[in-house]
Amino acid sequence: MVFGIVLIIIIIHSILIAITDTLENKSVSQIAYFVEFIMISVVILASFSNCLTIVKDTIQDLVGFTNSILPILITLMLTTGAITSASVVQPILLLLISFIGNTIINFILPIILISTSLNIISQISNEIKVSKISKFLNSSTIWILGVIMTLFVTVLSLEGSLTQTVDGVTAKTAKAAVSTVIPVVGKILGDATDAVIGCAGILKNAVGLIGIIVIIGICLTPIIKLTILTVMYSFMSAICEPIADTRIVNLLEKISETFKILLAIVFCVTVTLIIGLAIVIKVSNATLLYR
């Protein structure tokens, strides 16, 4: 629908410009351009506002779901003997996830909103030059996002690697103590404990897999919508170039780049949370293997 509205506005403007050029009336041409620009800007801002809401809701849903499933995974980690990993990884993971969600919602998305506003302002007139500031803000959001995601994966991986060895040694020592200290039934209890821990490990892996599937399900629709809008605006800027004003074409192209950034944000958050759950599963599985 957005595509059709913008295309109709551009076609009407082109007809008006052709008429005014014949009459050699530059004032009317300028007025016609400003009217076209305002109408297209309203359509773009409505679409952009809707996408910002989608991105914000998606991130909140992803963070909320991950914070809900983590206590279940951590509890199952405790039943598999990963006591140290559970006590260390859980607070760090919860802190990092909340930090990522709050940073994106309260810092990165407002920067993108400012950048988009500057993109629109820069196309009002050739005398207004703020496109470089907008480009800098877009680049900054990408760098900030990359640093946050790298920090998340690095910290979680290091903590998991350090704690899984401690858990493995502790669990193996406890089993040996039970088998040796308790007469007659010590070995039976040790073997039974291994069986229970193995079942808990299978259950934990199943919960983790379900969590990953749900995360993908939450972000799938927003990613498809943002992809469609990105392609649509890029396509509009291409097909409208022969008939539209250069500034309108540049505006459509810059909006397409903005939607790419929003798409990258949702995609990066999704991948990061999936990696986080996978690391939690890997840490406790490594403990079982070490046993």
Compile the SSE list and pairings.
Blueprint: H1 2-23, H2 26-79, H3 83-122, H4 131-181, H5 186-239, H6 246-290
Helix pairs in contact: 1-2, 2-3, 2-5, 2-6, 3-4, 3-6, 4-5, 4-6, 5-6
Could you walk me through the main structural features you see in this protein, from its secondary elements to its overall organization?
The structure is a single chain. This protein is mainly alpha-helical. It has six helices and no strands. The model is unreliable at 165-179 and 181-192 (pLDDT under 50).
Overall pLDDT: 74
Helix count, DSSP H or I runs of 4 or more residues:
6
**Main beta sheet, described?**
none
Inertia-based shape: elongated
Structural class: mainly alpha
For the termini, the CA-CA separation is 60 Å
Helix and strand pattern: HHHHHH
Strand fraction equals under 5%
Query: What is the C-alpha radius of gyration, as a whole number of Å?
Result: 28 Å
For this entry, what is the oligomeric state of its chains? single chain
Low-confidence stretches: 165-179, 181-192
Helix content: over 70%
Instruction: Tell me the total number of β-strands.
Output: 0
